[in-house]
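QA checklist item 7 of 12: single-chain prediction sanity check.
[x] sequence parsed
[x] length recorded as 143
[x] structure emitted
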Amino acid sequence: MEFTAKTPKDLRYIAEQIKPLIESCRITAFYGSMGAGKTTFIKSIVQALGSVSEVSSPTFALVNEYALPDDKLIFHFDFYRINNISEVYDMGYEEYFYSDDLCLIEWPEKALEILPDEVLNIYIKVLTEQERRIIIEKPKTIA
């Protein structure tokens, strides 16, 4: 599944379209170069899921938490600054990944060994300064 986004309105539309996938997979990994718009897209997804929380990059904290109306949570991870997978183990990632809550992960390539098999992968490719291609790769077990 592929989309092209040129405006924030496009990102909101795409977020609404993939919302059921994100909810069913629970763990979503976002791949893209620095400045590709991972956090910006996550902001649209968090809004589409019904949260009114302020979304920001958890680069220094590693994880931010956003509330959903149904008392569930969204955990937003940014692994950009981890130097060793032990940092992810030390933060107790299992409590997040194996909860019933949603996990949105930036820079997942830094922690591939701990990602479950049932991850929704989203690739953001920069086409121009304003245009992005968003490629959604569902887990093999989801039709």
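[x] summary fact logged: The two ends are 12 Å apart (CA to CA).
[ ] second reviewer sign-off
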